[in-house]
Specification:
By secondary structure, the protein is of the alpha+beta class. It contains 5 helices and 2 strands, in the order βααβααα. Strands 1-2 form a two-stranded antiparallel sheet. The longest helix has 9 residues.
Amino acid sequence: MRIVQPRRPCYKINDQIGQFTKVPNIAAWVSKQGISGWYFQVVRDGMIDADLPVYLVKRPYPFATLETLWQLSNSKEKFDAEVIEPWLEIECLEDSWKKVLAKKIQQD
């Protein structure tokens, strides 16, 4: 498996946790804090047991972390093309994230 993108909190967190907090829109608060899950992509079929360790086998895009993707995509700033374009070349990154990032390129 490989991690391919962050997972934004959905409205369900408001229903399940929001009722126990004083934060009216807990999903928005969680998103602003940069707290996210992630989606995996199955690369090879097989079985994984919950108690087995997970190892990093390779990192084809060393610059690409979920934290950086989250920061870039949620920033109100625009960035130089050199910052964003390497992200657009990541073949396993969903198009929806690429569209968000492409809009962040600073136009001269």
